[in-house]
């Protein structure tokens, strides 16, 4: 019997001014164990996963089927056991990780031999923007953009920082959070906003995390319009700064927020922030550098 497993990391998109193009993979995972069998079966082992009634309604099955159809193949039946550490609708890329899992499920079951770029192209078509899916697929901090229907991406070398995430108990749907954004920017505003984004990336590459943190907090593309939707948006940033964070931003479309903090300080700052936000799940996370992983087992 053939069996394989997939793991896909969570992700944090935007990192302030990198709206829809910067994503960072984080060490919380969606995992699938797949065994060939006569009939389709999905089994879920985490309360963080959305409920479903029939395998055909399962989001991951639908993505796998869509991927197989695009390549004129049909999926062979399997048992898919799913576990997840990624909370839903919190800005940690749960849907992007499910999209990557669905594409890879079809890739493995139908032997499609898709390249990373093929997968990224498909995933972006489904998600609408490449930031979360690129990070979940290839790992690390990734900058990606779609121009003329082609995606290009670049992974930033390892960052010498710790990450702290602040996950509130409430959900915020990406659709609602995107509706808060303006349809247009003036040339002046777009020029300044992209300058801020450019400077953030340049300073991250240089290792000037103070400057990167300053630029993270000066986003003009989305944070000013979403601030009212995010619990404790202003005071959380201020408090984290007082405890030594370089910069604190909305993770993806929110409502989770995320700080870049000095290396070695993630644990302490998490504890300090917990006294300020006792109802939040606050934890230091690591950047995942692997992205999607597939392990084959013959049993
Ligand atoms: N870049 C996206 C946004 C991430 O901020 O809306 C969430 O899907």
TrEMBL record:
SUPFAM superfamilies: GHMP Kinase, C-terminal domain, Ribosomal protein S5 domain 2-like
Domain GHMP kinase N-terminal residues, every copy: 60-140
Ranges annotated as spanning the membrane: none
GO biological process, one term: threonine biosynthetic process
Subcellular location per the Swiss-Prot or TrEMBL entry: Cytoplasm
Record-linked InterPro entries: GHMP_kinase_C_dom (IPR013750), GHMP_kinase_C_sf (IPR036554), GHMP_kinase_N_dom (IPR006204), GHMP_knse_ATP-bd_CS (IPR006203), Homoserine_kinase (IPR000870), Ribosomal_Su5_D2-typ_SF (IPR020568), Ribsml_uS5_D2-typ_fold_subgr (IPR014721)
Function: Catalyzes the ATP-dependent phosphorylation of L-homoserine to L-homoserine phosphate.
EC number: 2.7.1.39
Superkingdom of the organism of origin: Bacteria
Lineage, uppermost ranks: Bacteria, Bacillati, Bacillota, Bacilli, Bacillales
PANTHER family in the record: HOMOSERINE KINASE, HOMOSERINE/4-DIPHOSPHOCYTIDYL-2-C-METHYL-D-ERYTHRITOL KINASE
Keywords: Amino-acid biosynthesis, ATP-binding, Cytoplasm, Kinase, Nucleotide-binding, Threonine biosynthesis, Transferase
Top class in the EC scheme: transferase
PROSITE patterns cross-referenced by the UniProt entry: GHMP_KINASES_ATP
Pathway membership, UniProt: Amino-acid biosynthesis; L-threonine biosynthesis; L-threonine from L-aspartate: step 4/5
Protein name: Homoserine kinase
Sample GO molecular function, one term: homoserine kinase activity
Protein family according to the UniProt entry: Belongs to the GHMP kinase family. Homoserine kinase subfamily.
Chain ranges of the GHMP kinase C-terminal domain: 200-277
Organism: Lentibacillus populi
Reactions listed under catalytic activity: L-homoserine + ATP = O-phospho-L-homoserine + ADP + H(+)
Binding site for ATP: 87-97
Entry GO terms, CC: cytoplasm
């Amino acid at each position: 019997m053939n069996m394989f497993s997939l793991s896909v990391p969570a992700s944090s998109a935007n990192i302030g001014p990198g709206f829809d193009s910067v994503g960072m993979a984080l060490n919380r995972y969606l995992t699938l164990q797949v065994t060939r069998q006569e009939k389709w079966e999905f089994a879920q082992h985490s309360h963080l996963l959305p409920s479903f009634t029939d395998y055909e309604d399962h989001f991951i099955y639908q993505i796998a089927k869509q991927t197989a159809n695009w390549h004129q193949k049909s999926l062979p039946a399997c048992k898919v056991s799913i576990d997840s550490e990624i909370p839903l609708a919190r800005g940690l890329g749960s849907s992007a990780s499910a999209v990557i899992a669905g594409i890879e499920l079809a890739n493995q079951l139908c032997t499609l031999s898709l390249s990373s770029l093929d997968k990224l192209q498909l995933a972006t078509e489904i998600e609408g923007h490449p930031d979360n899916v690129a990070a979940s697929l290839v790992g690390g901090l990734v900058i990606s953009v779609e121009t003329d229907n082609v995606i290009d991406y670049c992974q930033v070398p390892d960052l010498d920082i710790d990450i702290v995430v602040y996950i509130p108990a409430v959900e915020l749907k990406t659709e609602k959070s995107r509706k808060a954004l303006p349809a247009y920017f003036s040339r002046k505003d777009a020029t300044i906003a992209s300058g801020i984004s450019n400077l953030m990336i340049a300073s991250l590459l240089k290792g000037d995390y103070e400057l990167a943190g300053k630029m993270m907090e000066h986003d003009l593309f989305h944070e000013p319009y979403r601030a009212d939707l995010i619990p404790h948006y202003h005071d959380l940033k201020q408090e984290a700064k007082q405890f030594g964070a370089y910069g604190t931003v909305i993770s993806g479309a929110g409502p989770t927020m995320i700080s870049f903090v000095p290396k070695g300080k993630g644990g302490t700052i998490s504890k300090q922030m917990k006294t300020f936000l006792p109802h939040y799940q606050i934890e230091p996370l690591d950047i995942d550098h692997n992205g999607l992983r597939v392990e084959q087992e013959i049993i």
